[in-house]
Structure formats: structure tokens, C-alpha cells
Amino acid sequence: xxxxxxxxxxxxxxxxxxxxxxxxxxxxxxxxxxxxxxxxxxxxxxxxxxxxxxxxxxxxxxxxxxxxxxxxxxxxxxxxxxxxxxxxxxxxxxxxxxxxxxxxxxxxxxxxxxxxxxxxxxxxxxxxxxxxxxxxxxxxxxxxxxxxxxxxxxxxxxxxxxxxxxxxxxxxxxxxxxxxxxxxxxxxxxxxxxxxxxxxxxxxxxxxxxxxxxxxxxxxxxxxxxxxxxxxxxxxxxxxxxxxxxxxxxxxxxxxxxxxxxxxx
Length: 265
Ligand SMILES: [Zn+2]
Prior knowledge:
By secondary structure, this protein is an alpha+beta fold. It has helices at 60-65, 71-74, 89-95, 122-127, 141-151, 161-166, 174-184, 186-196; strands at 2-4, 13-18, 21-24, 32-41, 100-106, 110-116, 131-138, 202-203, 209-210, 232-241, 244-247, 250-253, 260-264. The chain has eight helices and 13 strands. Helix 5 runs antiparallel to helix 8.
């Protein structure tokens, strides 16, 4: 599922890829939608059929072999490239040794996150954030992880997806939060600059961005659908937020089922 920001502050646009087809999900709001998993899963990396999906879309051999499936991607502060044990040093050069951004977002309250510079604003839309503000630019993924660890002393790094889906999220003054956190974490940031060089952690002066999602009605109680338990998921499409479809029968996180062969009607 591809999500792009709406034009002129309008709701985000959702497109579902189904085989060769591109389905405009915004146009299906208020209508019935049926998703049917055929039982097949294809690895998103190598295309091989797999009985089970690992790390949201990979076959087991890829999961064990690829650098992008290593635990250091989720916990970049544990980067082990310098120890010579990176699974794919060339991939790391292209993905980890690239500028990253540390941001504040508001998906279910204030959170900190990191992303490669090129992944903005996709990352925020994926999380269902209603606001986001890039606050620091760093030179590598490992540095972004170390900064995130520091910020985690003060703010969450995860989204409470139930709260996000219920739409009960107050807007925040992200610039004030940024200034407060930067002041509070000043000595920790100073230590990282001493370690990596004075120019490596650059404070950004950007304006916050806001996102709107196409939702007719937020669920009062969040029940989730799961293809592994029930191959057919149907209902009236009430909304789209983050990687979730909100149906009157429950919600489904499509990211979780990346690689699943699904027919849509
Ligand atoms: Zn594979």
C-alpha cells in the first residue's frame, strides 16, 4: 500500500497495489471492500514462495542473510560494521552510512523516531502521525540510533496503535517540545558530538508538518483482522490511517501482511 500526502493539506492518498492493478482506496470510502488472501506468500526480496513471512515480508533464508533483517536495523545503536561482521557491507554503505534524520512525531502522543533522509514523509504517514518535525540531522544510522536512545529517556519511541486508530490524539506544539528536549538532553548530545565530531549532529530549524487522513468514522473499540486466522476480510471501508484499513468489522494492518497474495473486490 502506497501513501502520499494529500494536496494542499487534504487527506493522504492511499493506493493499494493488487497485481498489475492500482486501486484508489480513497474512492472506496463508505463502500464495501473484500480482501481475500489466497494462501500464497512471496518473499518481498527474492520473490520465492514461503509458507511463513518473517520480519513482515521475507522468506527465512533472506531473513537470516540480509543486512536489512538484522537486529541492528531496529536498534541502530548496536551497529557492528566496525567489527567486520556486517552481513552486507555494501548494502550498509548505501543505506546505513547515509544521512539520517531524528524527528519528533505525534501519532498517539509525542514520540521520537529516526529515518533515512529520503524516507520523509512516507515514514510519518506509515505511522499515522498527524504532526511531525525533523529536529536533528546525523551522518549515519548508528548515530541516529544513539540519539534516539538518548531521547527515549524523555519520550516514547513507539506508537500506541489503538489510540492512533481511535483518533483520540491532541495536537502538540512540536517546536516547543523540540526546544525543551534539546535543552534537557544538551549534555548527552554534547558527548555524542565529542565522540563523532562537532559537525555530526546538526540541529535543524524546520517547520512542523501536519497530516490528515481519510476517515469517515473512527472505531470506538479496536478489533483487528488477521489473514493468518481468517483468509477473508470484508466490511465497509470507514477510513485509512497509517498502514491500517478501518472497516466497520475491524481494522487490518496491511504492512504486517506484506508479500501476501491478496485479491480485492
Ligand atoms: Zn527471500
